[in-house]
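Re: the 509-residue chain
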Amino acid sequence: MAANTFTQSIRPLLAKFGIEAPDIRINGLTLDSRQVSRDLAFVAVKGHKLDGRDFIPQAISLGARVIMTQTDDSGAHGALEMRGGTVIVHLAELPAMLSSLAAAFYDYPATKLETVAVTGTNGKTSVVQLLSQMKSLLGERSAAIGTLGSGVYEGASTRWTPSPGDNTTPDAIHMQHILANFVLQKVRQVAFEASSHAIVQSRLSQVKTDIAVFTNLSRDHLDYHHTMENYARAKRALLKQPGLHTVVLNSDDKESVNWRAAAQEQTEIVLTSMDQQLPDLSAYRHCLATNVQYHQGGVQFRLKSSWGTTVVNAPLLGEFNVRNLLSAVAVLLAQGERFEDVVRVLPMLCPVNGRMEVFTFPRHANVVVDYAHTPDALKQVLSSARAHTEGKVWCVFGCGGDRDKGKRPLMGEVAEHHADYVVITNDNNRSEQPATIAWDIKAGLVRPDQAIFEPDREAAIRYCLQNAASNDLIIVAGKGHENYQIIGQEKTDYNERAVIVRLQEEYSK
């Protein structure tokens, strides 16, 4: 992208919001004062942890000619202030209007794309990635935004650009900037993860959304939302997205009933299910998976849908991946893709990085890396592992520090119930001691003395490889695609997938 591709004056930009401003041309907007330059406007808003207004002097010192700042005085909305060569525009309710402001600056890029928003506790990344793969295999240029980063899908060579702050869903400005770049790159479809944080913080409020997908709801982020009711309500607010005409619901999750009740009358509902007795089939279009069979190379099932019925194969592991695949298939069929074409590309799919990703060891147990970091996700992964192996299941996992402590014993309970061997390790302990977190996890174990505690993740994996039988399966959960560990205030390099590749080479000698 050329540096001045999106250059425009703030006069017509702010005029759209009823504000008179001088004719100053800028190349973009940023929430990060460290990125400010003469041609990049600083937007100062009060965030969850930091108040951007505290960094206005820094932005001025870096040469900002324009600063748009949040004001708590509604009467000051639209007021202009000069500090040296900097124009400061005071805006009331700036966080809520941020998506609109960015959309206007980048010329409403979502309106030029086919957009799919995916929300739910688990499965967001997989559904987004599967959609991007399938759309690409069907011959259309596709892109994705989410936990892995953002980028145009180019197969194994795709270069994902991390979002600022490693957010699942980028901030409102960056989201519109990414979409605008996709338009320039002639992308046809964009699938993006819609986190509950992003929805309630209005990061997506002016992203035109054609189709929304709900995967499931289980305990997560209660340190932010406090109650499951608040968390569920935050997810359902995705139904208010502008332009929404279709919603794909995992009807096997009981929360889908609330989604159906909250959906607008003009919104089409498409149901997915692995339940052969799904009610209301005549009332809704649907995609069902029946006669599911799991094997070492993936899964086979009978796809029964409103568009056609056939037996399909896919190189994906686990029941939850069948559900993810159903969601992706339902989206494509709702978009108008031919049933025969969609089915044809399913065997060509590749596992998503760090999502039930298998690393084979010829003389030792195979290792599966997955991002599972909630009780429900861990349960799904371990249950799936059981279906794909004739041996024992080993589980290596930890819990994040300075986060929801209530889920720690639940994670321990799930691991002990669904795995044969439990190894507790470190996972972004932040300011807490790993041993303290492990103690909280062990509180959920019936036999805590039988669990192994090894804080070093690589050492924990080595322990399993040295003690597991060759037909066992080792599940290493929590890190997935991540390439870091957060210890104290430091983010240190740790790429679990790379570590296991190195161990593959070492153990093959």
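The CA atoms of residues 301 and 312 lie 6 Å apart.
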